[in-house]
Amino acid sequence: MRPLLISVCVFSLGCILCGALAIRDSVLRAESDLVEHESLADRYAADLSRKLATYETFARLSAATFQPQDPFDPEALSAFAGRVLGLIPNAYSMVWGVRVSPSERPLLIDALARKNATLFGPTASDVPPPNEVLYVNLDIAPPTDPNLSSVGLALNSRPQPKAAIEKAVGSNRPVATSPLRLIQNPSEPALIIYGPISVNGRLLGVLGFSFLFSELMPSPLPANTTLTIVDTAAADFGPVFHAGPPSEASAVTRTITFAGRDYLLRLQVHSENGLVQSGLSIFGFGVTIALLLALLTFSILRNNVALQAALSSKEAAEKVLQTIVGELNHRVRNTCAMAIALARQSFKETPEAFAEFQGRLSALAAGLGSSETAELRAMAEEVTRSFRTNVDVSGREIKLSFAAAQLLPLAIHELMTNSLKHGALGKDQRVILSWDLQADTFRLTWTELQTGGPPIESNTIPARRSFGTQLLARLIPQQLGGQAELGWHEGKYRYDLIVPSKSVTDAALAKST
Q1: Nearest-CA neighbor of 259 among 298, 187, 315, 208?
Q2: Is pLDDT above 80 for 510?
Q3: Helix (H, G, I), strand (E, B), or coil: what is residue 177?
Q4: Is pLDDT larger for residue 117 or for residue 368?
Q5: Rounded alpha-carbon distances, angstroms, from residue 182 to 32, 122, 175, 251, 383
Q6: pLDDT of residue 132
């Protein structure tokens, strides 16, 4: 009776130990999966935040630059929009919403007539009365199907645009609408960023950029992942973006702020019962080993009782005991060998786990016989290379800050475009692009040389303040906290940008080329 009781205890303890190991394995796997899911959510949130921050910056720059001479010109947006939309990836459309006072209604009606359009609201009853100030879509780019065009729409007759326009005008900064559906594409959730347009202190209207949420998101997602984004202040609208199969898995959430609105990103990853299967596999294998050890214990103890009963002398008992110990060692080694064979069959799909288990069990058997940024030069060379022109680039390697990484390539692009159209590159002459970073100051210089081709006359460079000129001479220096000079100097057309070094790189991470 006693050997049987001891064997049952050994088996019970083995089962308890295997259950604890199985639970521990499931917990460790769950913690590892959570860390991986948190990292994935951080990556998606950071990618979306960078995109939205870039769009907000472009909206602010465009609103500061767009200054129509006649706000009621129905084509006021056309020349400006083509260039700006080329710089803003994923922008769906761009609208000019002119501010119309009651006394300016006749001008509006005349301007809409030239576009074969009339003033309208979401429904016939929503057209604002004559005594209200309106913001009316007078022009849109790119052009859309006339049957789906929003030209003539009183923007502030819809609740979402009205709230965003009033907030943008009141705060004098770009503001995004709550989720809505565009007339041009009512099947997908979208948002519009409105920026106020003023000239000499006079409010002319608002410039609007529309984006489809589906164009902003990473694609494709992993097969077992569900990603949902909701506007926290407009949850009744439903998800503005959803991709992946329905899921009951726990979600990792992140909050993204854009143009005055907060969005909740929910990431769910389906485990496909991997944790349960792994735990059951470990528990089943452990129970098998415990049963073998219990049977071995029962056999040894029963033989020991029989031998003790048969021996009458101390000497005989000692000899029998030595025999029992040797037999025990031999049988345990055999059991270990059997366990290794079982493990090899059970862990065919996980050779790493088998190797670890085999090493531990072999060590036990052996002891039985004893008592883991963007760089300016790379960006500059990439921009100049895209134009396929001969530009001499010289300067130290500099790791750029986030703002400089956006603005300096834009400046080089504008200089290249201007030179190809009006300057040295268009006349097969040399251009030198250089920069220098000192302790407190960063200087970027663009020089067009009059060698190797026909001379450049001063009047070939347009004198008007175009978008590119304003970008180079005013907007980029302002954004980086410095100043710029653009024009002729000692017979050469030259551009000098001088800004504080801390605006270009967060630390002195420069190395000699």
Answers
A1: 208
A2: no
A3: coil
A4: 117
A5: 42, 11, 17, 30, 35
A6: 83
Tokens of 187: 């099947």
Rounded-to-integer distance, Cα 217 and Cα 242, Å: 10
The Cα 158–Cα 474 span in angstroms is 36
The answer to whether 432 and 394 are in contact (CB under 8 A) is yes
- DSSP H helices, 66-204, are 78-85, 105-114, 159-171
Q: Quote the DSSP letter at residue 450.
A: -
Q: Residues with Cβ < 8 Å from 236, sequence gap 6 or more?
A: none
Average model confidence (pLDDT) for the chain?
A: 78
| Higher per-residue pLDDT: 489 or 467 | 489
Exposure b/e, 354-391, CB count within 10 A at least 16 = b: beebbeebeeebeeeeeeeeebbeebbeebbeeeeeeb
The DSSP code sequence of 430-447 is -EEEEEEE-SSEEEEEEE
Tokens describing residue 115? 């576009």
Which H/E stretch holds residue 420?
Answer: helix 402-422
Edge-first strand listing for the sheet containing 241-243: 241-243, 225-231, 261-269, 251-258
SS3 (DSSP) at 75: coil
Q: How far apart are CA 194 and CA 273, in angstroms?
A: 47
CA 85 to chain centre: 21
Distance CA 215, CA 49 (A): 14
- Specify the 3-state DSSP secondary structure of 194: strand
Instruction: Give the residue-averaged pLDDT of 368-380.
Output: 68
The better pLDDT of the pair 3, 251 is held by 251
Nearest to 475 by CA among 195, 29, 59: 59
The partner residues of 453 in beta bridges, in order of sequence, read: none
State yes or no: cis peptide before 143, omega within 30 of 0: no
Domains in the chain (CATH in brackets) are 2-28+273-369 (no CATH), 66-213 (3.30.450.350), 376-511 (3.30.565.10)
Instruction: Quote the CA–CA distance of 495 and 423 in Å, as a whole number.
Output: 12
Give the C-alpha separation, 510 to 513, whole Å.
Answer: 9
Neighbours of 170 (CB within 10 A): 10
pLDDT for residue 419: 86
Helix (H, G, I), strand (E, B) or coil at 27: helix
CA distances from 356 to 22, 68, 136, 285, 348 (A): 16, 74, 72, 15, 13
What pLDDT score does 441 carry?
A: 94
Give CA–CA dist 187/175, Å, rounded: 23
